[in-house]
Amino acid sequence: MFHFFSKKLFLKDLLEGFVDIHNHILPGIDDGAKTVHESIDLILSLKELGAKEFIPTPHVMQDFYPNTDETIGDSYGRLLEALNKTKLLSEVTINPAAEYMLDDNFEKLLKTKDLYTLKKSYVLVEISYFQPPLNLEDIIFDIKTHGYLPVLAHPERYAYYHKKLDYYKRLKQLGCFFQLNLLSLTNHYGNNVEKTAKRLIEENLIDFIGSDVHNKNHVMKLSKSTISNNKIFDSLKQVIRNTNTVFSVT
Ligand SMILES: [Fe+2]
Known about the structure:
By secondary structure, this protein is of the alpha/beta class. Helices cover 38% and strands 13% of the residues.
């Protein structure tokens, strides 16, 4: 049936019970929340949109955010201590993981240490925005050989792949999972990212969704964002459902 007045579809309407597998809500250890106060504010505002489980994923990036088990554990501890004074802890779950840059440090970690996983063997990884890694296919193979399942954060944000749909398909064939950012479906990161995000959704190449929230501005944008294409909205609904099913711990 043809609708003259199609209903506005809000992104936030898909977020009831959302398990957010990518965000920077841990305080003071990367470019996300700076203080415990900011962390709690982000959790509260995401909860208002429907999110109920959080897997914070601070950057582990040798050159900029050299986070370790200790820095992540300490930041998480400070957040828990503050949350204990509120009733929030009984309403949401928070289990930290990490977003690993595929740099030299990561390759060392992979060999010598346990990685923080999102759940089970899923490890969230990112690559440079400026240039493709020379050996991405080898690294994916290596991650899998060590028993982990690589989840590439926001594949739609790597401009050098935008015109290479076949390469995205190749990475999927190698066993890489794709996590899309919610705000990539708006013009937040620019038109080319939005176009690629929609294309990847249409091609059924996206496995999981994350907010990648760093600050309150991101949550404000999320709360106002709409999707004009019903088909994309429906596919997105499926991907969010899949994300919740795979990563929920409750
Ligand atoms: Fe991130």
